[in-house]
Amino acid sequence: MQDLYGAVELGLLYALMALGVFITFRILNFPDLTVDGSFATGGAVAAIMISNGYSPWLATIAAFASGLAAGACTGLLHTKGKVNGLLSGILMMMALYSINMRIMGKPNVSLLNVDTVFTSVSPVVLMLIVVIVIKLLFDAFLRTDLGLALRATGDNPRMIRSLGANTDNSTILGVSLSNGLVAISGAVVAQQSGFADISMGVGMIVIGLASVIIGEAIFGTGSVFRATLAAVLGSIVYRIVVALALRVEWLDASDLRVITALIVVVALVLPSVRRSIRQKNVAKKRAMELAAPQSPQTGGER
After folding, report:
1. SS3 state at 300
2. Which secondary structure element, helix H or strand E, spans residue 256, and what is its range?
3. DSSP structure string for 20-88
4. Which of 70, 200, 207, 209 is deepest in the core (most CB within 10 A)?
5. Residue 190's pLDDT is what?
6. Residue 162 above 70 pLDDT?
């Protein structure tokens, strides 16, 4: 039971990161690897501000702003610098490693014996409220003209350009917002774990993708509300699956990356397999109907 509670807590802490990955991966169709760097940036900014006496909430907001800036740089590299989207994310991720080291001044910063946003409230309760509020605000944003332009940019950029919308601005906005949410997740994870580390963001893009894909496979994506809910719940389900997997005797914590990779592979392959089986069953049923003998017509002309 304790393992399940811990998994739900971690799932909520990483839910905003999954929501951020959902923006670039599903809405913009943009392969953004900045996530690995901006997650650590959020943790670094929050940790250094809190350790210097600033309010934890102010530090978390500053972490969000740092993520927005990192995402904007990636978006500008891609749209204005005409750099490949994947390469833009990789370049920014590399740059953020040095920037994060500059921010912290050392490989890690401790947050022990200082006040955080979780000092007087349970992480599960607080993060449940925060995630619900941010999710609902994001759903409302996607229904605005700006949000519709953002969604259209990922679906059909040529069409939205023909209607006079600026797809470059939409891309920059989407990537910025994505990394801002990722940075908030990094900030709260650092506060919950009691430290920020230079390598805390390694592999976050894979975890985010796993959460999004698992959520879509289980809960579906019929509407905006359902799609964002699937990303949030996928983060929780992913952590529960990992917690259950780690209880197997021959697995330990060092196998977490392998477990994550296997979960992503299964989540990616399973829908295709199910769709293929469904199509084969439909084709088989149709073939049987065509092969069945036709009943003789009655009452024909004499």
Report:
1. coil
2. helix 256-291
3. HHHIIIIIS-----THHHHHHHHHHHHHHHHHTT--HHHHHHHHHHHHHHHHHHHHHHHHTS---HHHH
4. 70
5. 95
6. yes
**In angstroms, what CA-CA distances link 242 with 8, 247, 257?**
11, 9, 10
Strand partners, 110: 195
The C-alpha atoms of residue 121 and residue 242 are separated, in whole angstroms, by 26
Please enumerate in sequence order all residues whose Cβ is within 8 A of that of 128, keeping only pairs 6 or more positions apart, or say none.
12
DSSP element (H, E) containing 197? strand 195-197
Phi first, then psi, for residue 216 (nearest 5°) are -65, -40
Say whether domain 2-256 belongs to CATH 1.10.3470.
yes
Rounded Cα–Cα distance for residues 7 and 241 (Å): 9
Q: 3-state DSSP: the chain helix, strand, coil percent, rounded to 5?
A: 75, 0, 25
pLDDT band at 51; cut points 50, 70, 90:
very high
Extents of the domains making up the chain: 2-256
Nearest of 67, 45, 48, 59 to residue 118 by alpha carbon: 59
pLDDT of 302 reads: 43
Provide the percentage of residues in the chain whose pLDDT is more than 90.
59
**Dihedrals φ, ψ of 197, to 5°?**
-125, 150
Residue 293 has pLDDT above 70, yes or no: no
Regarding predicted confidence, which is higher, 161 or 9?
9
